[in-house]
Design a protein that fits this description.
Blueprint lengths: L3 H30 L11 H4 L25 H14 L3 H25 L4 H13 L1 H7 L5 H17 L4 H15 L8 H13 L5 H36 L12 H15 L10 H15 L3 H18 L13 H20 L3 H22 L3 H28 L7 E5 L6 H4 L4 H7 L5 E3 L4 H10 L4 E6 L5 E7 L13
Parallel strand pairs: 1-2, 1-3
Antiparallel strand pairs: 3-4
Length: 495
């Protein structure tokens, strides 16, 4: 029977745990809530990934095996098409639906940590820090990163289900792995991560043969998927290096120096820095995790660190194409490794449960404070401010395009005079927004040219044409319009 003091301690611990969960939830919301604060609109791949024609269907997107090693991601494309068909160009409503997947990722991180016996305060703090990172804030609010967010969801769900003891969990995990793989290619490493995780969890008191049997019994279906898709990806990669020049963003450089440089870049980026050349943080974090895991023989720390390196490796070979969206999923495992290390360090403080809980609570509070501090850095504010500026400009451009170019005819040519300004709404395609708006693939835009050349092209054009000035802030003004088609004759019977 519990004593009154023990009951009071349990109630106090439960209340404190709820406070950590609440603090983590606030950080996660703060990380994305800013996207609802002012007029916004879609931009870049959020428009570029949409089909040009309204006749596109889901059946045209889905196919089992990939046709190329990069950008063959039918589930992510289907998600963007689904959101567009539901809400058209309404970014706010699209984002509201999209964030359900991101918040599911937050819950999965918490559930995996708890299943790995990490304390409630540290599990909640890990989620809060994940939600507070600038890479998370940019990715979770960018619907064009549906591939990264959706792949992370299926990957984390596959890891969570494989830790279950029921046989159906193992089959479900394989299905989720396949869905992750058809969302984005970096999920190809999932069976390797699951192998390490299952072997670690099954090794206690068992022989190597028994552990191997457990691994094969749980993961044989994962291995079949890995072999089938891995062989196809390898075939494409061998031919891709011959067809893609070194200047192309998708050129893959497998040199160790390139991979190391990319890994350090992404670690720095996750913690709010782009230039790591004079920064000790990226190598310091990786070395601390590796050395501590080796000295203390903490296999879980090593597995989480290895999972980060494996999931970041596919994009680490792309030195000319680095974005914050690429680290959204891999950074989860880096945070898992940090939380597993802190949980173990807290256990060294004392064997008494109350003292250990207090130590983990202090570590969790430190992580949450660090996450809150990251949101106040100049880098974080500049990234968020830039995104807000771009979305506001696109909102103004879209309103003007609807009002002033919404009735253009088929085959029209738009000559956009934007000087040094970047016409963010029109860069996708370019002019895909107008094509989708008018359901007309024949509309074209000419951008990125100096005024004199642009005006000359306009004067020589015999098609229906519009010379449009793009002004600071995103507004559009039609300066000239030529060769306009006469309106169709009115039916006398309708008068």
């Amino acid at each position: 029977m519990r004593s009154p003091s023990q009951a009071r301690l349990e109630r106090a611990g439960f209340a404190a745990g709820l406070l950590f969960v609440l603090a983590a939830a606030v950080l996660c919301w703060k990380g994305v809530g800013w996207a609802f604060h002012q007029p916004t609109f879609l931009f870049a791949d959020e428009i570029g990934n949409l089909p040009w024609s309204a006749s596109w269907s889901y059946s045209g997107l889905f196919h089992f095996f990939p046709d190329q090693v990069y950008n063959d991601r039918p589930l992510g494309s289907a998600l963007e098409l689904f959101l567009y068909q539901l809400f058209a160009f309404d970014y706010t409503r699209q984002l509201s639906c999209f964030l359900l997947i991101h918040f599911s990722n937050c819950l999965l991180i918490y559930a995996i940590l708890r299943r790995l016996d990490v304390s409630l305060p540290l599990s909640a703090a890990c989620v809060g820090l994940f939600g507070a990172l600038s890479t998370t804030a940019q990715t979770a609010t960018y619907i064009g990163a549906s591939f990264d967010v959706l792949c992370t969801f299926f990957l984390l769900a596959s890891i969570f289900t494989i830790l279950g003891e029921k046989r159906w969990c193992h089959y479900l995990s394989a299905v989720l792995f396949l869905l992750a793989l058809r969302s984005k290619e970096f999920a190809i490493v999932t069976p390797v991560i699951l192998t390490m995780l299952v072997a670690w969890r099954a090794a206690g008191g068992r022989s190597a043969r028994q552990t191997l049997r457990t691994v094969l019994a749980r993961l044989w279906l994962h291995y079949l998927v890995l072999i089938a898709f891995g062989a196809r990806y390898l075939y494409f990669m061998l031919h891709m290096r011959d067809s893609i020049p070194a200047s192309d963003p998708y050129y893959m450089d497998f040199r160790l120096a390139t991979v190391v440089h990319s890994v350090l870049y992404y670690v720095a980026l996750a913690f709010g820095r782009e230039d790591f050349s004079l920064n000790w943080l990226p190598p310091g974090i990786l070395l601390t995790l590796a050395v501590y895991g080796l000295v203390r023989r903490r296999i879980g720390v090593w597995i989480a660190l290895a999972a980060f390196l494996l999931t970041i490796l596919p994009v680490a070979t792309l030195p000319r194409l680095r974005t914050p969206f690429y680290v959204y999923g891999p950074q989860v495992f880096l945070l898992l490794a940090i939380c597993l290390l802190l949980e173990d360090v807290a256990g060294l403080v004392s064997k008494r449960s109350t003292v250990r809980w207090a130590a983990t609570a202090c570590a969790a509070a430190g992580l949450l404070c660090y996450g809150a501090a990251l949101r106040r850095t100049v880098y974080y504010r500049s990234r968020i401010g830039f995104t807000q500026t771009v979305r506001s400009a696109c909102a103004l451009s879209a309103a003007d395009a609807r009002a002033k170019l919404g009735a253009i005819g088929p085959g029209s040519h738009i000559y956009l005079n934007h000087g040094n300004q970047t016409p963010y709404l029109m860069t996708a395609g370019p002019c895909r927004f107008l094509r989708i708006l008018r359901h007309d693939d024949s509309i074209s835009c000419v951008i990125g040219k100096p005024y004199e050349e642009l005006r000359k092209l306009y004067d020589l054009d015999a098609s229906e044409k519009y010379f449009v000035d793009y002004q600071p802030g995103g507004s559009l003004a039609v300066r000239l319009a030529g060769n306009l088609r006469p309106p169709p004759p009115r039916d006398k019977g309708s008068q």
